[in-house]
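For the sake of clarity, the format in which proteins appear in this thesis is described at this point. The record quoted next illustrates the convention:

___
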Amino acid sequence: MTARAGEARPSQAPAAAQESLQGHYAGFASRFLAFAMDVVVITVVAILILAAINFVASILTGRSTNFSRSDTWVVVAYLAWGFIYFVQGWGLNGRTAGMALFGLQVLTDEGGDISGWRAAGRTLALPLSFLILCLGFLGILLGDRRRALHDVIAGTVVVYSWDAGAARLRYLARSSSPGAGAPSAPAAPAQPGPPALPG
């Protein structure tokens, strides 16, 4: 459809502005940072819970309890809390707190939301990627779909779920090209003024 004479043609954004990371498979750096943030969240919450238990125990018994990593039940409770954290995050909306911060989301192979059972399977398979010098993560670096071993087992992929990259490109394209913005109103005809004095 061609525009008639006198009609405004819709301005098309530059090619760079149309690029978006949304829906692309997530890379190793963003996934690693998201996982590191999740470990921090899990650890901080676990420490706060242990501190609260210690506080209540000191009030009830009059003596404080010292928890350490050598206590088997502390390790089991920490792992159970981490399991609940990942299953709930991935099962409810496909992302944990760390993944939400870095704009990542877990989806099925077909691009749908993952179920609670699949989230539990992915969480149980996650430690396998750390075995044998973390070779299970090589697929993120070398595979075309950037899947770790636990992604392959659970039938999932991790994609970028926000459009921050495209938003920044659109802003840069708009500010660098003067005609990209909304058309300005036509200038009013110049009014005759006094002649310019010689300088």
The chain has one domain: 20-166.
